[in-house]
Prior knowledge:
Elements lengths: L2 H4 L4 H14 L5 H12 L5 H10 L8 H25 L4 E2 L2 E2 L1 H5 L1 H19 L5 H24 L7 H27 L3 H28 L2 H4 L5 H4 L5 H6 L3 H11 L11 H8 L3 H20 L6 H15 L3
Amino acid sequence: MKLSNVYGFLKKDLQEIEDSLTNIIDAEHPILREASLQLLRAGGKRIRPVFVLLSGHFGNYEQNKEEIKTVAVALELIHMATLVHDDVVDDAALRRGKPTVKHLYGDRVAMYTGDYMLARALEVITSIKDPKIHRVLSKTLVQVVEGEISQIEDKYNLDQQLRDYLRRIKRKTALLIATSCKLGAIASGATPKQANQVYRYGYNVGMSFQIIDDILDFTASPKELGKPTGSDLIQGNITLPIFYAMNESSFYEALKSLFTHREEINEQDIKPILTLLKETDAMEQSYQLSNLYLHKSLQEMRSLPNSRAKRTLQMIASYMGKRRF
């Protein structure tokens, strides 16, 4: 079953959000407009708007629908901005199997495109007067940027701990998903307790989501990934499977040797590393940690009122736990 079928009842609202995204990024400058549309056309699961909408059902969804959808649009624009910036930092030519804005237009246009989307997101969110929403969002943005800097600093660095990785993916992925849940709840008028519960749900789901992504970077095919297998490793990013595999001395030494030629690493260079990785139990350990976060996310949902939205959030968590692509 496709993930989109799980939240099929949101189809109409999600289409309105998609239409709003198209209208909002319609810049006057032709290059900026085309670069923005290029990223939008690349698609994506729009999972952050989904979390906003579902969390909005814990308050008065119909009465506050427009504000909830406004939050969803802003969060997706912020996510898209981070993707453009990531592709520049990682020198990525492909995303979801399609050329990146960086590849088509160069670094400068890509960076300004990301900045433009972020500016549009902030412009959109100003239509909401609730100061709590602005405080939560601004705090999240600060931490997301700090996470991006940490990822750059930690590239090719074998002298880091598991907690460094967890802090990094918290800022890279989990916080924006958690914030999507919390802001959807706040915009709907849900109670502070419920807003905090869905925030913790989103945080744990986001941690699991990124861990699964990091596993799939090694186990999925280039066709499934839309980029070469092991791209994170080629770029010098130490993800969870690598952390666990480094406990094996032979793997650690091979990786250390690979990173001595960091400027020249390509797909062929990492094949021996991928072979060694498969000989460890790193993937199994990574799935175990992912499942731990998923279990925590489901625990957060237990005391929330029973509803279609609650069941859907539980199903999304379960679906992500079983994701093998």
